[in-house]
């Protein structure tokens, strides 16, 4: 049985790529305001949410259960609107040796819509651990929540 793998999901969003990316690149602490499944976030180490030396602690719901983990920024590629985070500790550390989460957002059309692409690269600690399929549903729902909130705010500004 294979211990490592990669899962990818792409979702069309109404929010322009630049704005959606900005939330995750510069306003990550706001995610808990927009996503129902994110219960709590806090800085664990460091003073800046987006610095590579900073560690954040997350509490979230996947498959109806509350989970915790830590993350640190691994890669920032502003030009391509792509960020990666290394997740570890908490429930992640119980099941995975490696867990890397990547978001890339690209403009889709001239109408201001975009595509959010999430990639999970993982290595399980043993064969008995299931792939992180629940994370795909979690990321899809969080993306929809963030997109709905940002789209609503954008529409309100146009009024």
Automatic annotation (TrEMBL):
A biological process from GO:
defense response
The record's annotation in PANTHER family points to: POLYKETIDE CYCLASE/DEHYDRASE AND LIPID TRANSPORT SUPERFAMILY PROTEIN (PTHR31338), POLYKETIDE CYCLASE_DEHYDRASE AND LIPID TRANSPORT SUPERFAMILY PROTEIN (PTHR31338:SF16)
Recorded hits in InterPro entries, A to Z, give: Bet_v_I/MLP, MLP-like, START-like_dom_sf
Similarity field: Belongs to the MLP family.
Q: Which CDD domains match?
A: Bet_v1-like
Pfam families found in the cross-reference section: Bet_v_1 (PF00407)
- The identity of this protein, by name, is Bet v I/Major latex protein domain-containing protein
Question: What positions does the domain Bet v I/Major latex protein occupy?
Answer: 2-153
């Amino acid at each position: 049985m294979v211990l490592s793998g990669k899962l990818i999901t792409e979702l069309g969003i109404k929010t322009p790529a630049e704005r959606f990316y900005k939330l995750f690149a510069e306003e990550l602490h706001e995610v808990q305001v927009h996503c129902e499944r994110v219960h709590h976030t806090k800085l664990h180490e460091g003073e800046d949410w987006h610095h590579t030396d900073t560690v954040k602690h997350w509490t979230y719901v996947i498959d109806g259960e509350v989970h915790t983990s830590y993350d640190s920024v691994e890669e920032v590629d502003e030009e391509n609107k792509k960020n990666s985070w290394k997740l570890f500790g908490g429930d992640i550390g119980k099941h995975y040796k490696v867990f890397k989460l990547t978001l890339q957002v690209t403009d889709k059309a001239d109408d201001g819509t975009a595509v959010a692409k999430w990639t999970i690269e993982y290595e399980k600690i043993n064969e008995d651990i299931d792939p992180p399929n629940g994370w795909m549903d979690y990321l899809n729902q969080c993306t929809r929540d963030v997109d709905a909130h940002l789209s609503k705010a954008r529409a309100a500004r146009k009024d």
